[in-house]
Structure formats: structure tokens, C-alpha cells
Amino acid sequence: MVNPKAISLFCGAGGCSFGFKKAGYDVVYASDIDSKAIETYQTNFPNTFAEERDIATLDCSKLLNELSIRKGELDILIGGPPCQGFSTAGTRFWDDPRNQLLKEYVRCLEELQPKWFLMENVEGLLTTKNGEYLFEATKAFIELGYNVRIDKIYAHEYGVPQRRKRVFIVGNRLGLDFELPTPLNLASGKIYKNSSVTLNDAFINLPKPSMEVSSSLKYDLVEYSDLFKYFESKQGQISDHFHVPINGIQLERIKSLNPGNTMKDLPEHLQHESYKKRAFRRVMDGTPSEKRGGAPSGLKRLFGNQPCLTITSAATREFIHPFEDRTLTIRECARIQTFPDYFEFRGNQSQKIQQIGNAIPPLLAHVFAEHIKKRYGFEEIKNEDSGKLIGFSLSKASAMSPALQKTKRKLNQLKHTQLAEQLDLF
């Protein structure tokens, strides 16, 4: 059987691509504007045509010709534009330069006409500009003939050892109504943090980290569970597993933290000046992602028996190992994101952790890739041009914030308008 073909835009280091390749897809093209992310991608996916490129310069017709794929034959487009637009509403939406990445993404979707698309974004997308960004994006996808579903995904419900909340927008132009994958284990407890997968599971069999940046540690391979088969090192070696020596007041701070403690739990004389300034910051519900900044916790000791907090570019500076007095290593962060040990990252340390923090966890991507391929496939069942919003899930909580309620109303308006049009009420 021929493997389904995928193109990855805004591919980053390749977390989504890795999951799809593990599920039997051929990722035939990938692009990103980040040169070091592309270097990482090319290192780990030597058989994929990957290039550093601004999406605005991508000629999709030429690309399809080079790949010997006809318009409409591509099975799936994966990856999505960063949510950088916090735009004005109404008719000016698509003219706002801050929405350029979304506009170019819609252009590529129209020119490629893939059978499916999968777009991932940050949780803040749900409330950006009172839901206007999500509303306009969804409306554009529907107008291109796609049946669309929007869900807020909790990664630790799908086997990722991390409390990572993201928005997935998935669509097909095959005329299929569909559901997104059923979670493997429903999270429960306070803020839905309890899960069957934990940080301790992610760290299984890792050797002690080195104190040297350039070292490559050897370790004995063990049998991994199916859940963490991605961690296996083919060479029995592991890179990027080091930490710099910690001493002085920083070590004193770390030693004073118990699991779950943050800077606010430290005596005032140990609190960092920057934390004191940030501690009184308040972020209004609905504030755009780019203006939120980091949570004012500074250092935070993690729980080993719970999923990790969301891995970001600050993880190697602020996250403290559950029982060792040090910050996390780059490789530990990669494991928490479910990258395999043999996955090599390129760039300096800041660039590497940025790539890891920005990635879709490969294991999560794998779950979605398998679900689409095995349950629904890529055969068209009807030739209708019109798309529709099948459904959406914006939160696990029964009560919604005012900002999220506005988004819900906009999406319901979109669904009701579609229904009215179908019934010829206009």
C-alpha cells in the first residue's frame, strides 16, 4: 500500500512530522523560517525535502509540480501558523498585517487542497480578540469546503507526561463527519492534572547528567513500555544531557524548594528581584498570548509522580528536578515532549530548548495520525463543495470565563448560520 503523503508547514524541529512518520506517513516537504530548526529537521529527516522559507514566498503550484503531486491529491497538511494576529474585527481582519501568517496558510490550503489538514496552536487562540481570530480562521476553512472540528486538547490524556493544553483544528474536504481521538486516560483532580503518566515515567533509565556541555553519555538500553518506545536510543548514547554547576544563592533557593513550591514559597531574602516585580502582575482573561509573559513563579520544583508542567523555552532555567538540586537538562525536556533519545537538536542551548518547547509532542501527533488514517482514511465520499463546522470543545470545565463564552457564541453563530443556509432560511 502507498503511504499517505503529508506536507508540514511551520515544521519547527519536526515533532509533528516524527509522529506522522511513525504512523506510516511520508512527509514529502517541510518548511520553516527558523534556520536552526530547519537544520535540526534536516538532520533527523534526511529523506524529506526541507527548507528554510518564509511561507509568503512559497509557490504551492510549483511545489506540487516538483513533488509530482496534483492539486487535491495531497493527503494531509500538518502544522499551523503561530498565533501572532491580535487584530481588529470585521472587514479589516484579513487586511491586518498581524494576520499575515494565517492569511498565507489559508492561501496554501486553497492552492494545495489537501484531503485533510491538522493545525495546532496555543490555548490563547481560543480567546484572542474575543474569539475573532478563531472565528475568522474557521470561517475561511469552511469556505474552502472543509468540515472542521475544534478541540482543546490535554496532552497528558494521550500519554504525554506533561500538562500541555493546546488547540487542535482539524478538517477534511472529503465530506466526512468525524471525531477526534478518544483520550487514553481522562485527567482528573484539581485543574485536571492527575494522570496515569508521570514525570518519573519520562525519566526512566536516564543516566546522571554530565557537567560538560559537549559530552555524549553512554547508557545501557532497557525494554521500554509501548508508551515510551520513542525514547529508545539506537546507539546506546545520549546527547544534550548536562547541567551547569549551581552554587551560591541559587543553590540555596533550589535546596529550599519542595515539590510544588515556587519562588513565592521561599523566604523573602531568597526571592529574586525580578520575581518581586512580577508577583503583583495580573493578567486579564482574554489577554493575547504575546502579552501574557511567563507565569510569575520563577523557579519551581516539579512533582515526580505527576505529569510535568508545560515545557517552554524557560524550562531549563526555571524547572527544578523532582529530587535532585538542579534544573532540567535539554534531553529531559525532550523526553517530556516525547522526542526519542536519538533525535539530534542543532543550534546553541537557547535555540535547542526553544525548538523543543515549540514542538507538537511526537507521541500526540502519532495518536492523531493513526486515528485519521485508520478510522477515516483518504477516500472522498461525496462531491459537495460546502464545508461546515462539525463541532467544538473549548474547555473541560462546566463554567466558562467571559472571554471563552464570547468565543463560544461566535462559533455557535457560525454553526447556526450554516444550518439556516442549508434550510434555505436566507
In round numbers, the mean pLDDT is 85
Supply Rg.
Answer: 22 Å
User: What portion of residues is helical?
Assistant: 25-40%
Low-confidence stretches: 221-225
Can you summarize the main beta sheet? 8 strands, mixed
Largest beta sheet: what is the strand line-up?
A: 3-2-1-4-5-7-6-12
H and E string: EHEHEHEHEHEEHEEHHHEHEHHHEH
**How much strand?**
5-15%
Strand element count: 12
State the main characteristics.
426 residues; alpha/beta; 8-stranded mixed sheet; two-stranded antiparallel sheet; 30% helix; 14% strand; globular
Put the structure in a nutshell.
With 426 residues, the chain is of the alpha/beta class. 30% of the residues lie in helices and 14% in strands.
Describe this structure in words.
The chain has 426 residues and is α/β, with parallel strands linked by helices. The chain has helices at 15-22, 35-44, 60-66, 100-112, 132-143, 199-202, 248-255, 273-278, 289-292, 315-318, 330-336, 349-358, 362-376, 402-422; strands at 5-9, 26-32, 49-52, 76-78, 116-122, 147-154, 165-172, 216-218, 237-239, 300-301, 319-320, 388-393. The strands form three sheets. It has an eight-stranded mixed sheet, with helices on both faces. Strand 2, helix 2 and strand 3 form a beta-alpha-beta unit. Helix 1 crosses helix 13 and helix 5 packs parallel to helix 14 (402-422). The radius of gyration is 22 Å and the shape is globular. 40% of the residues are buried. Residues 221-225 have low confidence and may be disordered.
